[in-house]
Amino acid sequence: MINAAQLTRIRAREPELIGRSWQKRSRRPVSGDDGRLLIVAADHPARGALGVRGDPGAMASRTDLLDRLATALSRPGVDGVLGTPDLLDDLLLMGALEDRIAIGSMNRGGLQGAAFEFDDRFTAYTAEAIAAQGLDGGKTLTRICLDDPGTVRTLEATAAAVTSLAEHGLMAMVEPFLTVRQDDGGPHNLLDPDSVIRSIHIASGLGASSAYTWLKLPVVDELERVLDATTLPTLLLGGDPQGDPHDTYASWGSALELPAVRGLVVGRALLYPPDGDVSAAVDVAAELVHGGGA
Q1: 3-state class (DSSP) for residue 180
Q2: Which residues have a Cβ under 8 Å from the Cβ of 52 and sit 6 or more positions away?
Q3: Within a domain: residue 59?
Q4: pLDDT at 70 over 60
Q5: For residue 47, what are the domain limits?
Q6: Has residue 11 been placed in a domain?
Q7: pLDDT in tens, 28-42
Q8: Could you tell me if residue 4 is inside a domain?
């Protein structure tokens, strides 16, 4: 597997190799034999969100992050990765995306801590680029703040992305939150069951077709009632891990027993476990997702 210095050399001297490599990449069906997915998320840095478990710079080293991602993607039961073009291009050149699902993160403009964080514009992948490069789908973060007029731009852009991805027959992974503005101006995602239910209904109606729409939702209380709000296939997000990892794994395991839940999209909890053992953390998640059948 090539190292960071070789990646930089290729980018400087042979940038066209990235495009050729996307076209030659070995692909697999999005849904495997059991119809369940474990996706490793790595799109946080593009929003300036580098913190994990109280360490604000945990994800600052790109070489360290790539090593952790390569380890995760090499483990049995890991189906793919979610990321921005810079990360996915690196992983592609490293050979880590062969026979893996690649989901492109689309709107990263709402930078963490910015005065314009709610204005979450689409600054990364477009649906057209996702289709042209042979990725398997696109993901949108859809924060819905009823007190912020800018929310309607995010909703409109998300709807356009869902429509375009569906036209190409590609997954549209929508991550909705009903959100309020805190005293410091930043967003606060409402994670009570009724707020999540409302966000599900809003997100489910975006776009001209729902045929390829999946939801990415938080693990919250009354999850069975929450998931009764949709027939769309749902993946659960991991978030910034706190507390005992075993408690986190237990909550994932319970949630994965619900029929609407088709798997997990987890980044920091697997890539930066407290004991540093990425392989062990990923293997636990893979067993939870794929060990229980369809």
Answers
A1: strand
A2: 58, 59, 240, 241, 268, 272
A3: yes
A4: yes
A5: 35-290
A6: no
A7: 999 888 999 999 999
A8: no
Q: Give yes or no for residue 294 having a pLDDT over 60.
A: no
82's tokens: 């979610």
Query: What is the tally of structural domains in the chain?
Result: 1
On whether residue 22 sits in a domain, the answer given is no
Retrieve residue 210's tokens: 């729902």
Write down the pLDDT at residue 31: 86
The separation between CA 115 and the C-alpha centre of its own chain, rounded to angstroms, equals 24
Query: 175-191 pLDDT, tens per residue?
Result: 999 999 888 777 899 99
Q: Any idea what the CATH number is for the domain that residue 156 is in?
A: 3.20.20.70
* Cβ neighbours of 224 (radius 10 Å): 13
Find the helix or strand (DSSP H, E) in which 18 lies: helix 16-24
Place 240 in a pLDDT band, splitting at 50, 70 and 90: low
For residue 221, how many other CB atoms are within 10 A of its CB?
10
Which amino acid would we find at residue 177?
F
